[in-house]
Amino acid sequence: MEVRARAPGKIILAGEHAVVHGSAAVAAAIDLYTHSSLQLHPAGEGGAGEVVVDLRDLDLSFSWPCSRLREALGESCRKAELQAPRPCSSEELASIAKLVELHELPEAKIWLSAGLSACLFLYTSILGCRPGKVVVTSDLPMGAGLGSSAAFSVSLSGALLTAAGAICAEGANCGTEWESFGKDDLELVNLWAFQGEKIIHGKPSGIDNAVSTYGSMIKFKKGGLTNLKSGNPVKMLITDTRVGRNTKALVAGVSERASRHPDTMASVFNAVNSISEELSSIVELAANDEIAITSKEEKLAELMEMNQGLLKCMGVSHSSIETVLRATLKYNLVSKLTGAGGGGCVLTLIPNILSNLVLEKVTAELELHGFRCFKVQVGGQGFQLCRG
Ligand SMILES: Nc1ncnc2c1ncn2[C@@H]1O[C@H](COP(=O)(O)OP(=O)(O)O)[C@@H](O)[C@H]1O
Ligand SMILES: C[C@@](O)(CCOP(=O)(O)O)CC(=O)O
Ligand SMILES: [Mg+2]
């Protein structure tokens, strides 16, 4: 049997980085997905067979004989207690890294090794060393701030947990072939995906895997998640500057700045917390006429502008991000970076009354800089499954 799972990417409307240090943040799922499909193969004689990971978009395939996995991981290769996800110990991570190194990734793709390590950890912890094949495809740019690492961890954890019989989909959703899951199952997927994010990010807050698992728009603060019922649709243009960066390094950089200036950075994080709190209550207001919608959008824009200023203060803006801010401001549009920054993606709030003509002009101007624009639906589905 083949299990096909999908999990969405996300945008962070307010609060990235500060959320790692305990502030509130607001994030929403977008309709760009990572798909993981899984086929289990019958165990060969004497434990033969292999685990194959096929990264389709990258045209890369990796395989490990089950016997090699067992030899390298020993006890850790035994199926874990599925209901209680365990973290990957540093010894286990070192053994997994050696298994990944066997494949000698090209220098230009070395950033993939963290994703492959997360994949091997999740596979062997959830299914043990059973032979099987995982195929991953994604609509998301990798390492650009749209949560590809979380969508990868969530779709993979969900597919593996379904194959292990630990979770079960609840039937077709809204007449589509995609099936949704109940609260307890989603919680388990989220907990396992968080372990995968830890391998990729080092110190994730958990917001990306949470919004990818549950979908919708959420306010997230360590230990708590509130589902936001958006009063009116929020329209955003996403611009990928195509400047590559790495979330783990950027998160570590902010933490270093915080340890050099603890009081000052605590005030910055506190200000971001207020921005996220205010933004989340404005999002939930239902505005009924054009004047009310405009006033709501003006408040959102101002909060995004303030958040961008504080992100610059944390040291995570970039000249390419500043170029997007200037280009959109010419059309009176407000933008902020989204995700870890340092390049990657920028959000631009699109007011309800903005004409398509102006939107096309802004997009064309951004594309002239070599950037790539995405028009996305905000606040959609989370983790879902489709049976093959
Ligand atoms: N489809 C995928 N296949 C393999 N690894 C992936 C995939 N998507 C994400 N990753 C891993 O996640 C990393 C990018 O995560 P990160 O730096 O957090 O940026 P973001 O989550 O914003 O895309 C990649 O370098 C890779 O290790
Ligand atoms: C910077 C941060 O707030 C979000 C990172 O998102 P992304 O990996 O850049 O998509 C880190 C986190 O919350 O774990
Ligand atoms: Mg990430």
UniProtKB/TrEMBL annotation:
<keyword id="KW-0067">ATP-binding</keyword>
<keyword id="KW-0756">Sterol biosynthesis</keyword>
<keyword id="KW-0752">Steroid biosynthesis</keyword>
<dbReference type="GO" id="GO:0005524">
    <property type="term" value="F:ATP binding"/>
</dbReference>
<dbReference type="GO" id="GO:0019287">
    <property type="term" value="P:isopentenyl diphosphate biosynthetic process, mevalonate pathway"/>
</dbReference>
<dbReference type="InterPro" id="IPR036554">
    <property type="entry name" value="GHMP_kinase_C_sf"/>
</dbReference>
<keyword id="KW-0479">Metal-binding</keyword>
<keyword id="KW-0753">Steroid metabolism</keyword>
<feature type="domain" description="GHMP kinase C-terminal">
    <location>
        <begin position="298"/>
        <end position="361"/>
    </location>
</feature>
<keyword id="KW-1207">Sterol metabolism</keyword>
<comment type="similarity">
    <text>Belongs to the GHMP kinase family. Mevalonate kinase subfamily.</text>
</comment>
<dbReference type="InterPro" id="IPR006205">
    <property type="entry name" value="Mev_gal_kin"/>
</dbReference>
<dbReference type="InterPro" id="IPR006204">
    <property type="entry name" value="GHMP_kinase_N_dom"/>
</dbReference>
<dbReference type="InterPro" id="IPR014721">
    <property type="entry name" value="Ribsml_uS5_D2-typ_fold_subgr"/>
</dbReference>
<keyword id="KW-0418">Kinase</keyword>
<dbReference type="InterPro" id="IPR006203">
    <property type="entry name" value="GHMP_knse_ATP-bd_CS"/>
</dbReference>
<dbReference type="GO" id="GO:0046872">
    <property type="term" value="F:metal ion binding"/>
</dbReference>
<keyword id="KW-0443">Lipid metabolism</keyword>
<keyword id="KW-0963">Cytoplasm</keyword>
<keyword id="KW-0808">Transferase</keyword>
<dbReference type="GO" id="GO:0005737">
    <property type="term" value="C:cytoplasm"/>
</dbReference>
<dbReference type="InterPro" id="IPR013750">
    <property type="entry name" value="GHMP_kinase_C_dom"/>
</dbReference>
<dbReference type="InterPro" id="IPR020568">
    <property type="entry name" value="Ribosomal_Su5_D2-typ_SF"/>
</dbReference>
<keyword id="KW-0444">Lipid biosynthesis</keyword>
<feature type="domain" description="GHMP kinase N-terminal">
    <location>
        <begin position="128"/>
        <end position="215"/>
    </location>
</feature>
<dbReference type="Pfam" id="PF00288">
    <property type="entry name" value="GHMP_kinases_N"/>
</dbReference>
<comment type="pathway">
    <text>Isoprenoid biosynthesis; isopentenyl diphosphate biosynthesis via mevalonate pathway; isopentenyl diphosphate from (R)-mevalonate: step 1/3.</text>
</comment>
<dbReference type="GO" id="GO:0016126">
    <property type="term" value="P:sterol biosynthetic process"/>
</dbReference>
<keyword id="KW-0460">Magnesium</keyword>
<dbReference type="GO" id="GO:0004496">
    <property type="term" value="F:mevalonate kinase activity"/>
</dbReference>
<dbReference type="Pfam" id="PF08544">
    <property type="entry name" value="GHMP_kinases_C"/>
</dbReference>
<protein>
    <recommendedName>
        <fullName>Mevalonate kinase</fullName>
        <ecNumber>2.7.1.36</ecNumber>
    </recommendedName>
</protein>
<keyword id="KW-0547">Nucleotide-binding</keyword>
